[in-house]
Inverse folding.
């Protein structure tokens, strides 16, 4: 654990939202190790072949509403809409006065995304609307935490990978496995900082146990800052394949993506993604490193990073 953390807790209960998400599956064993009992909330339930831990109760949303009042901690690794429902919803028999330390949750750790900073001016209407909604949710969560006396930390991580559940790094790996080649936007020199989900889970637990005050919003980046093209090359290496990047001029790549978007092969892609390959998406996470002993690994993916983790 990070320096200055309280390790004397006696079986505190944490409500883990998004328990079957890429951060959630790594958070569970770390929460257990830290002495927590976990109420794991997931629409999908416990992932297939995921270990059964006696300190974990898997619940759906309807079940947890009946027991959430017993939780001192909230860790949200899923949609912020669900975090808002539990943090802002009525969970206490009597009103909680502003500034009181008697709120429903002692601490709430919420995962947002660095996209709220990089996609605000996106030319894609759907992306722009999504970011507007995320920023509104962050604001609602901050207001609720202040009113209830809950210590809140909202993390904004960069590109997440680590167990095959992300839609960025793993999507590239799937494409490489299928086609053995990836088109990129020219030099694709825009900088990236991929971060492993296990490192995010670790810093979340540290934040839950930290005694000292912290900023309500913290950026979390990975251990390497590298170009988009170099990031893709390392994914080829992880897949045991030679790096084969087809460097297309942006206008041609945009045209191809527009065409592909009308087919199944282009599902989930848009032209803004192509343009961002030439843009630096870099964040300063020094506060998290200093306050929470955050030391993320460099980006050196292996094949196991594209499937669920195996815990002993």
């Amino acid at each position: 654990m990070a320096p200055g953390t309280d390790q004397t807790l006696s079986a505190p209960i944490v409500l883990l939202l998004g328990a079957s998400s890429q951060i959630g599956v790594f958070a569970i064993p770390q929460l257990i190790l830290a002495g927590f009992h976990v109420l794991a909330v997931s629409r999908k339930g416990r992932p297939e072949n995921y270990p059964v831990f006696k300190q974990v109760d898997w619940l759906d949303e309807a079940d947890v509403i009946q027991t959430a009042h017993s939780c001192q901690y909230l860790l949200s690794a899923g949609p912020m809409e669900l975090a808002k429902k539990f943090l802002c919803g009525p969970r206490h028999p009597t009103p909680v006065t502003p500034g009181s330390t008697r709120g429903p949750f002692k601490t709430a750790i919420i995962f947002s995304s660095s996209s709220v900073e990089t996609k605000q001016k996106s030319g894609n209407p759907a992306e722009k609307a999504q970011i507007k909604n995320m920023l509104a949710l962050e604001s609602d969560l901050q207001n609720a935490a202040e009113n209830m006396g809950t210590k809140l930390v909202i993390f904004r991580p960069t590109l997440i990978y680590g167990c095959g559940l992300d839609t960025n790094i793993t999507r590239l790996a799937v494409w490489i496995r299928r086609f053995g080649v990836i088109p990129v936007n020219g030099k694709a020199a825009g900088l990236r900082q991929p971060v492993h989900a296990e490192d995010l889970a670790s810093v979340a637990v540290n934040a839950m146990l930290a005694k000292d005050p912290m900023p309500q919003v913290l950026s979390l980046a990975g251990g390497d800052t590298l170009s988009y093209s170099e990031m893709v090359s390392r994914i080829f290496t992880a897949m045991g394949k030679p790096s084969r990047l087809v460097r297309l001029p942006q206008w041609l790549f945009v045209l191809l993506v527009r065409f592909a978007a009308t087919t199944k092969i282009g599902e989930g892609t848009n032209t803004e993604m192509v343009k961002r390959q030439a843009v630096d998406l870099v964040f300063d996470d020094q506060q998290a490193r200093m306050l929470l002993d955050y030391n993320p690994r460099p980006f050196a993916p292996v094949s196991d990073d594209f499937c669920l983790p195996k815990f002993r």
